[in-house]
Amino acid sequence: MLELQRGSQPWTGRKSFAGGWRRPATAPTVKKKSEQELKDEEMDLFTKYYSKWKGGRKNTNEFYKTIPRFYYRLPAEDEVLLQKLREESRAVFLQRKSRELLDNEELQNLWFLLDKHQTPPMIGEEAMINYENFLKVGEKAGPKCKQFFTAKVFAKLLHTDSYGRISIMQFFNYVMRKVWLHQTRIGLSLYDVAGQGYLRESDLENYILELIPTLPQLDGLEKSFYSFYVCTAVRKFFFFLDPLRTGQYLNLDKDHNGMLSKEELSRYGTATMTNVFLDRVFQECLTYDGEMDYKTYLDFVLALENRKEPAALQYIFKLLDIENKGYLNVFSLNYFFRAIQELMKIHGQDPVSFQDVKDEIFDMVKPKDPLKISLQDLINSNQGDTVTTILIDLNGFWTYENREALVANDNENSADLDDT
To answer: Taking the complete model, does pTM exceed 0.85, yes or no?
Structure first.
């Protein structure tokens, strides 16, 4: 046995297959993986096991196959092919919806069926139908009419008939109105360029512009005025349908620059609006270098001419709320009425006491808080048009102040006409 000297390293050799001894090969160096390689390996493993798990879940629970896709990414501007595909698919969808509506021939057939199944006796010249015959007509009218022949529709049209019937004419008009509404919605949807289920201002402008030639009332309208008509109609829609948005026009625009200054706007109506109110208009409304454009002017006109409407009152209330507190107090009322008093002096009228006017306003509105008038108080009182008129327009205030004398004068004139 070979003895090793003390302190020497032990012999780690081993016998070779040939019977001799050799030194072992050097152990291979393990290459250390980079952080990115480790992440890639981790992702590969995750994908592998997730795919295996997902496949298993799909096989064990068929319910997941029925969940519809609820999110569709809109194509980007540079994805022209996807945009075209989306436009075509929407057009096909709208065409299919249009084909689902009753056409003229189908409406005539529906009328004949209703008339054939009327239930006597008639009320005057109005034909009636009971629920049993109503259902029979529904079975014969075809699948497009199925949505109209329900118990809910029948009950909606059932009024005071002692035999429990509904008017055939009322039901037919109901169907016609529904068909027309769906046709209109499909027509409007064709102008929804973004395909998001709503019309932008430019979309509605295009719709009305192409509608003008089909309107007999506008046969005499010159094409040069089309843009003014379209703008007026669109702003009216947006004013009343969206109350939360922040011929006369040409006559007011004296310098013909297409915009109105405060001085030009002051001639609106009877030219008796106070400068204080006009200042507020130009402070709060969108202007360009201190002048308002046609769209802003239309909002202004729509508000003043429809002061009983909540949208119009909201517009004016924002102008009267000079401190932006969400309510009108004695200070804000006095701020505007002082301008009325000054105009009264200029026109040789005896100024009215603000205290009296203030008491009248609070008596008319009857706000929840006896010291503050909110927008909702103004709307609930049904006196919002009167209150705003008193505060912003001298002619309006004079008309209100002399209302009894004016009514008496009208009655006298009416009596004179009756005598003749």
So the answer is: no
